[in-house]
Amino acid sequence: MNPIKRIVCRFLKSKEMRHRKLKITRQFKDLKIRRRLSKEQKKEVLDYYKGLVGRRVSLHCHEYFYSRTGVYNKEYVPANFYHCELVPRANIHSLGNALGDKNMCDFLFPGENVVHSIMKRINGYYYYEGAPISPEEAVSRFQNVDNVIIKPANKSKGSDVHLLSVKNGITNYKGKTVEQLFASYGKNFLIQERVKQHKDMAALNPTSLNTLRVLSYRSGMEILIIYTVVRIGKSGQVIDNQSAGGISTSVDKTGKLGKFAYGGYTEDDILRTDSGIILDGYQIPSYDKVKDMVKRLHFKLPYFDIVGWDMAVQEDGNPVLIEFNVNPGLSQSAFHSGMGEYTERIIRELWPRPNTWFPC
Hints:
alpha+beta
């Protein structure tokens, strides 16, 4: 590598590592209960990671999740280490923006049950039911619609996802015209049918589509389900993301929910949903079907070995893919671990690989 490029690469990597470290530090300061690691715990964590990758790691994530959950675990994974070192070793970073685009789901998984996209805008071009159309026709087709979902194609955490209704060209979003709304979403967005979810999923919160975030890892010819968490919206919300006010809790291997849910960065030990459902032991419908579908889909993404899948369960009990994420975060509050029983195995497999984001 060119020496100047190497210097720039190391600077960018250091900057990103510091940014993620500062973020978790700020979140730690906002917690009601702040637990510090003992000397013995610090030594155990540092020895664990030194044995895996030969270097020290930041302890801020361990203290943050220990404080939130009350559970100490040496296998928490520091966010800066995970996003800057592990994910770009698992996934080809340069392909993430293109193949990870939400508009690509049905192209990548033909014949699979993927949420139906009515219209897409890809790099400024409009497609209606798969056929190219002009901007004028795109606007004219949405003068009167009810209860569809509009969202950006390349943002995460539920950002700018809205339940859209239009009457005589005026939308329910700040009174904008269809043309104004489309312009505000830019060159990459999509409009989808609203999924009718299974009654047992709707019971968790009827106003939001409550989804399962399944994190999977490909190891050769084996797809490992690292964990699953369920994400549940708050009363009146359309989206279920924890970062947007929703809550999440773990799902065990049989599809039953954990005792506590977590919301935002400070809401802990939530026992029931806003609709009154007690979380502990609540059964997710069709969970085995969800896992089978995720494993089948992951084999179709050979450039990405760590993938986060957002799955819903339809009225008829069949799983449907909402979207996937090739730079997924870790749900360590709900899961009480980084990657659970697979943490050491995954790190050992990934560490010898080149870092495709910061190749230096």
